[in-house]
Write a structure and sequence with these properties.
By secondary structure, the protein is an alpha/beta fold. The protein has three domains: 3-157, Glutamyl-tRNA reductase, N-terminal domain (Beta Polymerase, domain 2), CATH 3.30.460.30; 167-309, NAD(P)-binding Rossmann-like Domain (Rossmann fold); 343-417, no CATH class. 54% of the residues lie in helices and 12% in strands. It is built from 16 helices and ten strands. Strands 7-6-5-8-9-10 form a six-stranded parallel β-sheet. Strands 2-3-1-4 form a four-stranded antiparallel β-sheet, sandwiched between helices. Strand 8 (247-250), helix 11 and strand 9 form a beta-alpha-beta unit.
Length: 450
């Protein structure tokens, strides 16, 4: 009987100092999949590594021994750490609990920020590496493809990823709510750091008409503008640029406001009082709070955006409940598919026996007849069709019974009824058995390092 095991640690199970080791491990060139041939009790293996998560997904028939080997692999990946300490950070899921956990990870329900999209891409990369190293076969291939479809369904049937939960995204969402459409709007980005870059990316997805970048270091402004088809202006010419802008998003590292009350008020006359929106995501603030007192000028700072984020986080939590229902449903479907694997050997044996009988009897008949090739082919198709239709109901019966606890009884009846060769299965131990001591685990580590 094949078992599915997921062993790992993440931001919930391990403190920051251990996660720092994970971050270092993420940057290493060595891939644990290279050691797959040394894992005698592991049949398939997928390795997922991010800065906040390391997980080994594998199949086996001897769970205790397989977990022992994978724990040694995990220690080898993270570096020297006492076995008892490592165990306190590790979680283990088996069979459908492992499947459900994987579905939740791919749907970003287990992430630090619920609904973030990056984890699905990371999981696809892990699967691609596993296929390249040829460490996945029937079960994990099926499971990973099902995982991707479940994540897609969660994204399409819920709004878990549609609400802003980052400052940059919230800033752009605020601008979109104010203007409705951003396609004909002109935006001035003051600052070219990471926050500004993220904001620029979100703005471009909304199709803004014009983007202008100003930064004290001109090269960074040029790089950012080029990446998003924007323009640059000298940092000293920001005030002159205000008269043509609709939205100004600031995120510099200045310790003093770079836009004062009088700076903005004097430019509003040139704008003929057309509305001007400031979104200040800098700390300390780039825009003097008094600017908000000017007619037709609207200023939002990082505290205003945090309120939006908090509200959206609550919305994501509500959507997460809907996502959990989808995952529970898809887990049941995968469990039913896994159950059919127990009856597959009997189905194969049934088909093989029927095919042998068909071929033998057909050969006997054809040897006594003088038929043209097209007639022989017609007889071949006829007998194949008869066998296929005769086996349809028994095979369908077995597949339907596969999900039941009494499936072994039906398999036994089928084998006796059709006089098939029995296939003896072996029981597997529970993961709750006593784990090996440090000395045994150390020996495995030495073997893996060889």
């Amino acid at each position: 009987m094949c078992r599915i095991i997921l062993l790992g640690m993440n931001h919930k199970s391990a403190p920051v100092e251990v996660r720092e080791q994970l971050a270092v491990a993420c940057q290493q060139d060595s891939n644990p999949l290279l050691l797959f041939p040394h894992l005698e009790n592991v049949s398939e293996l997928v390795f997922l590594s991010t800065c906040n998560r390391v997980e080994f997904l594998f199949t086996c028939t001897q769970p205790v021994k397989a977990v022992q080997e994978v724990k040694a692999l995990l220690r080898n990946h993270l570096g020297t750490m006492p076995s008892t300490r490592l165990d306190s950070y590790i979680y283990a899921h088996e069979d459908m609990d492992a499947v459900k956990h994987l579905f939740r990870v791919a749907s970003s329900l287990d992430s630090m920020v619920i609904g973030e999209p990056q984890i699905l891409g990371q999981l696809k990369t892990a699967y691609r590496q596993a296929t390249e190293y040829r460490t996945v076969r029937v079960i994990l291939n099926r499971l990973l493809h099902k995982t991707f479809s479940v994540a897609k369904r969660v994204r399409s049937e819920t709004c878990i990823g549609s609400c802003a939960v980052s400052i940059s995204y919230a800033a752009v969402e605020l601008a979109r709510k104010i203007f409705g459409e951003l396609r004909d709007k002109r935006v001035l980005l003051i600052g070219a750091g990471e926050m500004a870059e993220l904001a620029a990316e979100h703005l471009m997805t909304q199709g803004v008409r014009q983007m202008v970048v100003a930064n004290r270091t001109l090269q960074r402004a040029v790089d950012l503008a080029r990446r998003y088809n924007g323009e640059t202006v000298p940092f000293d010419h920001i005030l002159d640029t205000l008269k043509n802008m609709d939205i100004v998003l600031t995120s510099t590292g200045s310790t003093e406001p770079i836009l004062t009350f009088m700076d903005v008020k004097s430019r509003m006359r040139e704008r003929r009082n057309r509305p001007l929106f400031f979104i200040d995501i800098a700390v300390p603030r780039d825009v003097d709070p008094a600017v908000n007192q000017i007619d037709n000028v609207y200023l939002y700072d990082i505290d205003d955006l945090q309120g939006i984020i908090d509200l959206n986080m609550e919305e994501r939590r509500k959507e997460a409940e809907r996502a959990e229902h989808i995952i529970a449903e898809e887990t049941i479907k995968f469990r039913n598919w896994m159950a059919t694997l127990d009856v597959v050997p009997t189905i194969i044996a049934l088909r093989e026996k029927a095919e042998r009988i068909r071929c033998n009897e057909l050969q006997k008949t054809l040897s006594h007849l003088s038929l043209e090739e097209k007639d022989r082919q017609a007889m071949e198709v006829l007998t194949q069709s008869i066998v296929k239709k005769l086996l349809h109901d028994p095979i369908l019966f077995l597949k339907k019974k596969a999900a039941r606890d009494t499936k072994d009884l039906y398999v036994d009846y089928t084998q006796q009824l059709f006089n098939l060769t029995e296939r003896n299965g072996s029981d597997v131990s529970s993961l709750t058995e006593e784990a090996p001591d440090d000395k045994k685990e150390s020996n495995i580590l030495k073997t893996l390092k060889k």
